[in-house]
Design a protein that fits this description.
Pfam families: ABC_tran. The chain folds into two domains: 189 residues, Rossmann fold; 64 residues, no CATH class. The chain is built from eleven helices and ten strands. The strands form two sheets. The chain has a six-stranded mixed β-sheet with strand order 6-7-8-3-9-10. Helix 3 runs parallel beside helix 5 and helix 7 packs parallel to helix 10.
Length: 302
Amino acid sequence: MPRRTDDIVIEVKGLTNSFGDQVIHQQLDLEVRRGEILGVVGGSGTGKSVLMRSIIGLQTPDEGEITVFGEPTIGRDPTEATNIRKRWGILFQGGALFSTLTVAENVQVPLREFYPDLDQALLDEIASYKVVMTGLDASAGPKFPSELSGGMKKRAGLARALALDPELLFLDEPTAGLDPIGAAAFDELTRGLQRTLGLTVFLITHDLDTLYAICDRVAVIADQKVIAVGTIDELLALDHPWIQEYFNGPRGRAALAGKRDIEGEIKRRPTAASLAATNEADAEQGDDAVATDAVKTDSGTR
């Protein structure tokens, strides 16, 4: 059954990007489905970020077509482009916070750009809500980026990306520079927000743990194009040398082992039904014990 066109949030056809004589993309095609987290991977210099910049309009490609929400994005009238941009949020690598603005003021930047008539009280309320939504304490709002840890900067950047209640979220290396615990926590936050808000997520990453933990599908960029898109299990079945080296190398095997450990732990955890059955059995045993004690007491009295 053919996929409905409204299920495709991003469609890239025949994309070519070059810088001078260096060709980055050559006839690249990609589709991003509504409601999925799509991971984008590739070796250094394959143009993962260039692809994202092309989609969001920061890079004008040499050739090709790009549509977002069914609307072409290349060469659009500024007003029409603004209407599309309102529907997405972007977390750039490192957070890209304005150093002279507080966290709350950073979150308010897109609100001020697209809705200049909002009063300050409402701006403050929205910013506070978005900050807390990303797991930061409300006290982070008045702080400057220099006062934040690396993980807090990522979350503050994410709060800004969510300021306009977007349908589509772009994340560029969101866990880069974080320790394993911080990276896992950010992955969990991303998946939770995606499910709660119904987001479509375009996620550039080199973090195999992230791919295994939260990505529904993965797009692999190599040889100047997207050579494969699918679940990790589907990609593992391919014999392309880069894919095999990436997913079956030492880091890939470690990430897979970690995923299986987590899945095993989840299976071992008691379900709500089993807990209820255990509690019911314990209650019955307790009732039997009380009844037995009552009989013994009655017999002793006689």
